[in-house]
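Memo to structure team: turn this sequence into C-alpha cells by end of day. - J.P.
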Amino acid sequence: MEECIKDSSGTLPGKTIFFAMTKKHAYRLQEMFDDLYPEHKGTLAKVIVSEDSRVHGKGGLLDQFINNDFPRIAISVDMLDTGIDVRELVNLVFAKPVFSYTRFWQMIGRGTRLLEPTKMKPWCHKKDRFLIIDCWDNFEYFQMNPKGKEDKPSKPLPVRLFDAKLRKVDVCQVINHPETAVSMIAKLQQDLQKLPSNNVVILDAKSKLNKLTDVFWSKLDADKKEYLSKEISPLMRTRTAEDFKAMSFELNVTNYSIATLEDSETSQKKAVALQELIIEKVSDLPLTVNVVVKEKELIEAVLHSAYLDNADEPALDDVIERLGPLMKYREEGIKLSQDKLNLKDITLEKEYIQFGPANERVTIQKYREKMVALIQKLESDNEILQRLKQGDPLSPDDIDELANILLKHDPYPTEKNLQKAYDTRQVSFLDLIKYIMGIGELKTFSEKVTEAFAGFIATHNNTFTTKQIQFLMTLQTFIIENGKLTKKDLVSEPFTRFHARGILGLFPQKEQEEIMSFTEELLKVA
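Reply from structure team:
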C-alpha cells in the first residue's frame, strides 16, 4: 500500500496481482489486509482461486477484477499466473518462490500488456511502467539483477490538498487576513477528523496526532506549521475512501484563492490558468442530470469570468461545497487520434467558444445545445423563424432583424461563433440557422477537407508511395486543425518526420506544385 503504483488519486493501488503460495496463505493475506485497512470493508482485495464458485462466470470475482473498478488487488494461487489479460495491471507481488524460469517470465508478462486506447478504463488512463515487488528473491535465484526505474515521488491528492490549505493559512497570516486564516485552520481540523482511525498507519502515528490539542491550534506559529507539514500531512494519504473528483476540484479552487491573495506577477498568471481550469470543469457538468440542474444558476454564474474575478472567500467556499460533489457527473472531452489510414476519420478535439457580454466560455457541444434550446424557445412566437420553417424567402432586412433578435439571448450567437461551433467557414448565418432548425443540410469544413483529400489520393493511388500517402494524411489533419497552409509549413514539423527536407525531399517538383495548387483551391472553397 505504501510502495505500489497508485491510481490518479495517488492513494489507492492500481490493479494488482499477489502471487500467493497456497489457498491458506492467500486467505491469510486477505484477512491481514482487511485487518490493517478496515475502512475498505473487504472490497479492495479479494482472493481469486479456481476452486471458489464465486470466481467464475459473468459478474463473478474474476469478471469484476477484469472489468470493474473494484476489487483492485487479486490474491491468487496459480490461477492468475498465466493466461489472464488485464492490461491495467501495474503491480505484481511475488509472495512465493518460483522455480521455473519459463513460468517466471509468464508471470512477469501479466504486467507488460499495454493499454488499448479505444478501451480505456476510468481507473487507468495511463500506463508507462509497472512494478514488481519480489518478496522471495526470485530475481536473484535466476541470477537476474534488473535495476528498474527510479520513480519521482508524487504526493497523493489528499496530501496536496492538506498542504494547500496549510499554505493558505501561511499566506493569510502574512497579508493579515485573520478571518480567512481561522477558517482554513478549521478546515485542517476537519480533515484530521476524516482520517480512518483503525488504519494501521494512523494507529502507528497516534502519538503524533495526540499532540494536536486545543492549545496547539490556539496559535499556529512557524514551528507548528512545520510540524503539520512534515509529520501530519503525509498521513492524509490514508484517506482512500473519498470522492477524489470533488477533492481535485477543491484543490483547484483553493490554489486559485491562494494565487489571488498573493501579490506577484507569477501568482497572477497562475490565477488566470486556474480560473480557466475551474471554468472548464464547471462547463463540463451535464444539466441533464437532476442533481446537477439544481445548481444551474450557480453553474451559469461561474461560467462568467467576472464571477470568479469578484468572488470573495465565502463565495469560493460556496462553489466548493455545492459544485465539488457534482464533479463525478462531469462529461470530460474526448480526443481521438488517427492511427490508421481511414479517409473517413476526422480528428475530433474538445474546443471552447467565448461569447456574450460577460465572456462566458463553454465547450462547442454545450454551445450547440444552447443554440438548439434558443431556437426551440423562440420558434413558436417569432414570425421570421416561422416563415423560414415554411420555406418562405427572407429579405436582407429580415435576416438582419433575426440576427439582432437572437443576439439579445443567451448564447448571443454571431456568424463567427456559429461557424466555429459547426466547423464551417463559408456557410452563411442564415444557412446555419436553417441547419439548427433541421430544415437545411450542412457539410463541415473537416468533412470537405477529408472528402477532397480522399479524391486527391484516389487519383494518385498508383503513383504515391505509402510514405507519401502518410504525408498527405498528415497534411489533411494539419489543414483541419489550422485552417491554413503555407509552403514554409511543409518543410517544418510535423512534415519533416517523413523526410528531413519535408515536401521537398519526398515529392518531385511537379507533384509539389500539384499539391500546393490542390490545397490552395481547397482552402478557397471549403
